[in-house]
Amino acid sequence: MKLILITYKLFKFLIIFLILDICIFLLIPDNLKTSLYNKRSHKLQSYYYHHDQRANATYYDHWGKNKPLIFTNKYGFKESKIGDVTFSKKNILFIGDSLAEGVGLKYEETWVGHIAEQLKKNKITVLNAGLQTYASSIYLAKTYDLIERKKIPITEVFVMISVNDIYDDYYRYKEVDKNFRVRHDDENNIVFIKLINFIKGNTIIYQIIAELSPPLAFIQKIKASFNTIKQSFAKKNENYLRQENNMREIQSIQSILAVSNRNDYKMMYDEKIFAEIGAKSINKSIAYLERLGEFLEKKNIKLNIILPRESIFIIKDPIDKNYQYLLNKLSSLKQKNINFIYLNDYYKNYKDRFDAYRNLFFTNDVHWNKEGNKKIAEELIQKVFKDNY
Predict the structure, then answer these.
(1) Which of the four CATH numbers 3.40.50.1110, 3.30.565.10, 2.60.120.10, 3.10.50.40 does domain 38-203+253-388 have?
(2) 3-class SS at 365?
(3) Furthest-apart CA pair in the chain: how many Å?
(4) Which uninterrupted H or E stretch holds 210?
(5) pLDDT single digits (tens) 136-191
(6) Cα(362)–Cα(253) distance, rounded to whole angstroms?
(7) Is the peptide bond before 214 cis (omega within 30 degrees of 0)?
C-alpha cells in the first residue's frame, strides 16, 4: 500500500512538473526557442515510416563546423522558409536519405534547393522529403503516405538511393506491410508517439536531456567550446590562423582512406560479405522500389531513381562485379517503366580522386559540401531537367 502511495505521489509530481515546463516553454520568445532547441527535438517518431521531421520548425543544425539555420514547411520538408506550400500543375517530390536532405547546409545550398531555383521559372514546385537514415522501405511507405493520406498533388517522384540504404533495409528495418507501413523493432502505438513528439518539441527538460546525452556527445560539445575560445584568441595572430586554415583544408590520403572503412559499404569491398548478404540485400531494396513504381504507375506518376557515385567509391574503387550487380539491377527497373539516372560525372574534372574528395565533401565525411551539392545539381539539370522541363 505504501509503495502504491509513493508511486502515485511521484506520478502526480511528474505530471505537475511537465505541465509547468510546457507553460514556461510556451512563454519563451520564438527567436530564443530557435537557439534553445536541440535538433533532435524535431526528429520525430512516425507511426507509418519510422521517423520524420517536425512541420513548421526553425532550428540550428550542427554538422561538423557548420551551423546552418534550418526551416521546415507545413509537411516537415526542409525549405527556405516555414509555412504553407504553393502547388503548381507540376509538383516534383525528391526523397532520399541524408544525401537528399543536404545535411550541414541551408536549403538554398543543397542540390535540391539549386534544382528548385532552376525550375521556379517554369512554375514547378519542388518538395524535399529526404531525411537522415531513410532507406528504400521508407521511400515506399512515406511516398504512399504523402499521396494517399496527406493528399499532396505530386506529379513526379525522384528517389536518390545510396548503398547504405541497402544496408539499412536489410538490418535496420523490417518489412513494409500491406498497409504501406514500415515494421521495425521500436514500435509504439500512435497515441504514445504523438505524446512523445509533443514533449520533445514543447519542453525545456527535453532540450537539456538531449544536450547532455549521449555522454560522449556532451564531452565533444565541451571540447568544441574550448576550441572556439582558443580560436577567438588566435584571431589576433593572422599567420597562425592562415596556417590553421591551410591545415584544415589539406587532408592526408590516410585520413581520407579511413572514411571508406564503414560497415555499411563493406559488401562492395568484400567477396565473402557480398556472397552472404550483398545480393539478397540489393534484391530486397529493389523489390521496394518496384513496389513503389507499381503504386505510382496506378496514380499516373512517373518514378525516377537516382544513384550517385558516392564518396566512398570515389576514394576507393569497389569490386567491379559487386557494384555492377547493383547497377544492373537498377538499370533493369526500366522494364517496369522506372527511369534510372546514374550520377558519375560531377567529380571527373579533378585529375586526382583525393582532390575530388577534398573539394566536394565535408572533411572526413561522406556528405557533399556546398560545392559538391552544386555539382550534383548541375549534373542532374544537364541529364534530366535541361530540355524536358
Answers:
(1) 3.40.50.1110
(2) coil
(3) 77
(4) helix 204-212
(5) 999 999 999 999 999 999 999 999 999 999 999 999 998 999 999 997 666 678 88
(6) 15
(7) yes
